[in-house]
């Protein structure tokens, strides 16, 4: 995703505050900086996991029917960075088989995140959310517009960069944990991923600070 110019802050309500210290952008690829990038990825995952857990705990109290849906799901994700590395945001949209939105997740990411790190963050955040919805699901379709992330998760590309390895490992682990009959991971063009792209840009605009400070979630009652 190529982030757009700043826009209005997202309308979704913050649910799970958390903090993450600023991480300076790496200017070279020394072992020390690679280790720092790997540590940053681990801490990002920790904050996302905590935020999604708290957010879905509240969501399922407000809309308990979401955990008993007898159908499949579609999850779209996106992420972007202004500066690459720079201010970044990630988002995931969870829909039912009829295309109705069940939940929306957004997160502002630490200063210094790259586009690929933000894309992986969106994927992992969406997969974390699916763990709460997929117990009765039959088929899950997962889509994103990052060819690199999609192909690495499908095993078509190797993931060798230390800053991406923890994110890649978490994504493949979460995919294996989905309680569905089948999960299909698919690359789509950006115009077919417009909703997640919009939300990722809103997440960048929402908190232009070098930390993860909230995860947003909302739900719509299905007819």
Please provide a written account of the structure.
With 223 residues, this protein is α/β, with parallel strands linked by helices. The chain has one domain: 2-Layer Sandwich (Nucleotidyltransferase, domain 5). Helix content is 36%, strand content 22%. The chain has 5 helices and 6 strands, in the order αβββαβααβαβ. A 6-stranded mixed beta sheet has the order 5-4-1-2-3-6, with helices on both faces. β1 and β2 form a beta hairpin. α1 packs parallel to α2, α1 packs parallel to α4 and α2 packs parallel to α4. The longest helix is centred in the N-terminal third of the chain and has 32 residues. The chain is globular and about 40 Å long. The N and C termini lie far apart (33 Å). InterPro entries: RNaseH-like_sf (IPR012337), RNaseH_domain (IPR002156), RNaseH_sf (IPR036397). It comes from Chlamydomonas euryale. This is RNase H type-1 domain-containing protein. One of its GO terms (molecular function) is nucleic acid binding.
Quick structural summary:
By secondary structure, the protein is an alpha/beta fold. The protein has five helices and six strands; from the N terminus they run αβββαβααβαβ. α2 runs parallel beside α4 (165-177).
- Measured by DSSP, the beta-strand proportion falls in 15-25%
Q: For the record, what is the CATH homologous superfamily label?
A: Ribonuclease H-like superfamily/Ribonuclease H
The gross shape turns out to be globular
Q: Specify the structural class.
A: alpha/beta
Uncertain ranges: 5-31, 209-214, 219-223
Task: Note the gap between the termini.
Answer: 33 Å
Organism: Chlamydomonas euryale
Pfam families: RVT_3
Biased composition (Low complexity): 1-32
GO molecular function, one term: nucleic acid binding
